[in-house]
Design brief:
- The protein folds into two domains: about 5-130, Rhodanese-like domain (Oxidized Rhodanese, domain 1, 3-Layer(aba) Sandwich); about 150-270, Oxidized Rhodanese, domain 1 (3-Layer(aba) Sandwich), CATH 3.40.250.
- Helices cover about 25% and strands about 10% of the residues.
- It is built from ten helices and nine strands.
- It has helices spanning about 10, 35-40, 70-80, 100-110, 120-130, 155-165, 175-180, 215-220, 245-250, 265-270; strands spanning about 5, 20-25, 50, 90-95, 115-120, 170-175, 200, 235, 260.
- Strand 2, helix 2 (about 35-40) and strand 3 form a beta-alpha-beta unit.
- Helix 4 packs across helix 9 (about 245-250).
- The longest helix is centred in the N-terminal third of the chain and has 10 residues, at about 70-80.
- About 45% of the residues are buried.
């Protein structure tokens, strides 16, 4: 069973195994249709395409961030349609760094499914290793997914405000240093960060080839921002997507138990009365 990462060669050896479900999570924030387009051109054999906006998020509401989590019922139906149940090993991949694949990794764990891993290095590593691709759409027979959701894995905006006021958590923001500092904000209408948050861009989890660093290197890296119990950590970003990359990296490093703030910066700034820092 793979619960964090799987290497391209390991996945290639299991492509014909019906107990493996491969999900293509490629996405570009500035080009919402890009992922579906490149999937149609070329993808890992048997892979099913997952849209960040339609499958891994719910519609944006007046008080939500840019990528609200879907309801448990809706996402359960999606997983069932993809042919996933409790016995299936899920492998998620994106174009390379794992920023979008990690979102699916976290969501499955949120619903109690631990048989899920991110393809280390993503589609770029798959191509680099000369492994097969196809343009034929993947198809799996539906299965019945049973959700065992955990509210302990995430935190709402109201809970975050209370926890920050009581100094009960360490809030880590996965956005780039410039956006965290309130500079070069090109995505959200308000620049800055939540007061008290610390910055650890998710890209620090990767080596020069876009693969995750070894566990010991990740532990050393997180030591810069985590001084207490990892279970006191809350991970955020712009919309609750790349924050999952830090959570995956922490799991690889043996620092499990941290929570996600799904609404993240784009939900925090919905209320102009909430404080911001730059």
């Amino acid at each position: 069973m793979y619960t964090t990462l799987i290497e391209p060669a390991e996945l290639a050896a299991s492509l014909s195994d019906p107990r493996f479900a491969v999900i293509d999570c490629r996405h570009e924030l500035s080009k919402p249709d890009w992922g579906a387009q490149v999937y149609a051109q070329s993808h890992i054999p048997n892979a099913t395409y997952a849209s960040l906006d339609r499958d891994l998020s719910s519609p944006i509401g007046p008080a939500t961030g840019r990528h609200p989590l879907p309801s448990i019922e809706v996402f359960t139906a999606t997983l069932s349609r993809w042919g996933i149940d409790g016995e299936v090993q899920v492998v998620a991949y994106d174009q390379g760094p794992g920023a979008y694949a990690a979102r699916l990794w976290w969501m499955l764990r949120w619903l109690g499914h631990t048989r899920v891993a991110v393809l280390n290095g993503g589609f770029a590593a798959w191509l680099k290793d000369g492994l097969p691709v196809t343009a034929e759409a993947g198809s799996r027979a539906p299965r019945q997914f049973v959700a065992r959701a955990s509210n302990a894995m995430s935190i709402t905006t109201a809970q975050l405000e209370q926890a920050l006021a009581a100094r009960e958590i360490t809030l880590i923001d996965a956005r780039g240093a410039d956006r965290f500092a309130g500079e070069n904000e090109t995505i959200d209408p308000v620049a800055g960060h939540v007061p008290g948050a610390l910055n650890r861009p998710f890209t620090r989890n990767l080596d020069a080839d876009g693969r995750f660093l070894p566990p010991d290197a990740l532990r050393r890296g997180f030591a810069d921002v985590i001084t207490g119990d990892a279970q006191e950590v809350v991970s955020m970003c712009g919309s609750g997507v790349t924050a999952c990359h830090n959570l995956l990296a922490m799991e690889i490093a043996g620092l499990g138990g941290a929570r996600l703030y799904p609404g993240s910066w784009s939900e925090w700034i919905r209320d102009p009365h909430r404080p911001i820092a730059r």
